Amino acid sequence: MNLRAVQTIYLFEMSRTFRTLLQSILAPVLTTSLYFVVFGAAIGARIPEMGGVSYGAFIVPGLIMLMLLTQSVSNASFGIYFPRFSGTIYELLSAPVSSFELVLAFVGAAATKAILIGLITLATASAFVPLEIAHPVWMAAFLVLTAVSFSLLGFILGIWADSFEKLGFVPLLVITPLTFLGGTFYSLDMLPPFWQTVSLVNPVVYLVSGFRWSFYGAGDVSVVASLAVVAIFLVVGLTAVWWIFRSGYRLKP
Amino acid sequence: MTRTQLTVNPTTTPAAQRDAARETSPADDRVMLSIEHLSKVYADGFKALDDVSLEVRRGEIFALLGPNGAGKTTLIGIVCGLITASSGSVRVDGHDIVRNYRAARSLIGLVPQELTTDAFEKVIDTTAFSRGLFGLAPNPAHIEKVLRDLSLWDKRNSRVRELSGGMKRRLLIAKALAHEPEVLFLDEPTAGVDVELRRDMWLQVRALRERGVTVILTTHYIEEAEEMADRIGVINHGELILVQNTTELMRRLGSKQLTLQLNEPLQQIPEMLAEYELELSEDGHTLIYTYDTHGERTGITALLSDLSRAGVRFTDLRTRETSLEEIFVSLVSPQS
Ligand SMILES: Nc1ncnc2c1ncn2[C@@H]1O[C@H](COP(=O)(O)OP(=O)(O)OP(=O)(O)O)[C@@H](O)[C@H]1O
Ligand SMILES: [Mg+2]
């Protein structure tokens, strides 16, 4: 194991983050605050309690998930797309580094950043609503597993994309709608039965639900189903990455 | 691993150094690079390499000479793990580049043809990054030495995007040397580098060779191959046409042409100039003399005085090296 290389790439990726530290922190703080002003205070005041918690508190887990998913995908996809685009990937491919080590470093860095932003979002939210976390360990587990799974997804996206347009396309056209329709701002039982059933094929529903369960002890679907979905995501992502490196897809002509 | 030595001795001329170096060439019998029946067919069906076999010994400077699209970068790419071979095998110091890629790649430094750098990084950081990638502990002294040798130390805190093209090329060399490689691939190292620095670079390459580093470089220029390499491999259309000692190859290739623009058109070449085997153009306005630059004498002085004795006057004259294309033709044509 070339741990030194993993560390080198990881720190390089993280330093990119810290160079733009202010943006990295400011953006989620601002977004979260806006959501709370609009959904928590303005609209939430007219919405009754949901499952025993105020609407403001109810949307916190969904909001963190929204941040986590978009950040994981965009960090990881950009992290690997940029060296491909600029050509500096030659150095990574010609180094004595295994594909596993490469993935570990890139996905690790992207997930770390996403988790940091998730935690910043959580901290910002706690300034607006009183928060309680029923299952902190599970909360941390969901946070990490989701960040890792979606960073893997982002990594795959960054390898598949051959233009900046495509790089922006997936987060915008896939991740954002799935998150908004994934019970971020509402509970599934508020939907007509037909749409409840449709929602069950949206994987984000399971992530948000599981995460919300770790906060308030209740979710739309069972926590086992949530865990299963995260596990499936991980396995699919890992398989895809394994295939990419085995075939040299978009990396080696 | 030993430290990279890049000392330059400014008192001797490059040519003198080269000749001296060639005589005491440290190339030993250990085969550092062994390529067997290597072929590459790209996804679009294009055959970029066709059954190439080659051995390069430790401490050798080997030049791959060939025109655009010959397959030089493809060959280097395969050895360095950037391109997947279609068939054949490559070993670096005995390590197969696929089965034993870690051992093989640890020995290799690569300077790519394209100027690909992280624009926003600092020179010193990106050089240290390269070392870390190869799993080596940080060694600021070595990084400083490499940057100094490549005249980049003053620029160590500049961002890469602030460097000139030639500096970027040298930075790529510094990055490749950061992990103290045993085999160095230089894909057109002197493209975009000014004449003075080019000389410098040649000296540094030779200095690397002195400590046993094997250097494989590509170039379009015969003079560059001649100047630097112990052996030259000529590649064209994916085939390694020939591999030969530089001195021998130069004897074979070193012809030049002298073209004379005549005052008055000639009907035919005067008798007394027959021994020069001159060519006369169709319109009789130009005379062409082909001579060997490596011969004892070129015969130019004699030709010019014989021309004036024969009363042939000319308005202009120019000389020209044989082009790579002509060389390939002469190499593959049967009589050569
Ligand atoms: N990824 C690719 N897909 C298809 N064809 C390719 C690819 N890369 C290179 N080629 C083709 O393979 C041939 C050899 O290319 P290569 O880059 O090895 O040439 P080269 O000798 O390095 O040329 P140059 O002196 O211009 O750098 C060229 O005809 C090129 O068009
Ligand atoms: Mg090339």
Keywords:
heterodimer, A: 253 residues, mainly alpha, 10 helices, B: 336 residues, alpha/beta, Rossmann fold, Alpha-Beta Plaits, 2 domains, six-stranded mixed β-sheet, 11 helices, 26% strand, elongated, disordered N terminus, binds adenosine-5'-triphosphate, binds magnesium ion
Task: Please give a structural write-up.
The complex is a heterodimer of chains A (253) and B (336). Chain A is mainly α and 253 residues long. Chain A has one domain (3-247). Chain A is 77% helix and 0% strand. Chain A is built from ten helices and no strands. Chain B has two domains: 14-107 and 181-250, Rossmann fold (3-Layer(aba) Sandwich), CATH 3.40.50.300; 254-332, Alpha-Beta Plaits, CATH 3.30.70. Chain B is an alpha/beta fold and 336 residues long. The longest helix of chain B is centred in the middle third of the chain and has 16 residues, at 195-210. In chain B, the strands form three sheets. In chain B, strands 6-7-8-3-9-10 form a six-stranded mixed β-sheet, sandwiched between helices. A four-stranded antiparallel β-sheet of chain B has the order 2-1-4-5. The model of chain B is unreliable at 1-18 (pLDDT under 50). Helices cover 32% and strands 26% of the residues of chain B. In chain B, strand 1 and strand 2 form a beta hairpin. The two termini of chain B are 45 Å apart. The structure holds adenosine-5'-triphosphate and magnesium ion. Magnesium ion (MG) is lined by residues 72-73, 113, 187 of chain B. Adenosine-5'-triphosphate is lined by residues 42, 44, 46, 48, 66, 68-74, 113 of chain B.
By DSSP (H or I, 4+ residues per run), the number of helices of chain B equals: 11
- Indicate the multimeric state: heterodimer
Question: Which architecture of the largest domain in chain B would the CATH scheme give at its second level?
Answer: 3-Layer(aba) Sandwich
What portion of residues of chain B is helical?
Answer: 25-40%
* CATH topological fold name of the largest domain in chain B: Rossmann fold
List how many beta strands of chain A DSSP finds.
0
Count of all domains of chain A: 1
Q: What profile does the largest beta sheet of chain B have?
A: 6 strands, mixed
* Radius of gyration of chain A using CA atoms only: 19 Å
Uncertain regions spanning at least 5 consecutive residues of chain B: 1-18
Order of helix and strand elements from N to C terminus of chain A: HHHHHHHHHH
Using only CA atoms, what is the Rg of chain B?
Answer: 23 Å
Cα(first) to Cα(last) distance of chain B is: 45 Å
CATH class of the largest domain in chain B: Alpha Beta
- The counted number of beta strands of chain B is 14
Q: Tell me the β content of chain B.
A: 25-35%
Helix-and-strand structural type of chain A: mainly alpha
Share of residues in helices of chain A: over 70%
What is the 3D form of chain A? globular
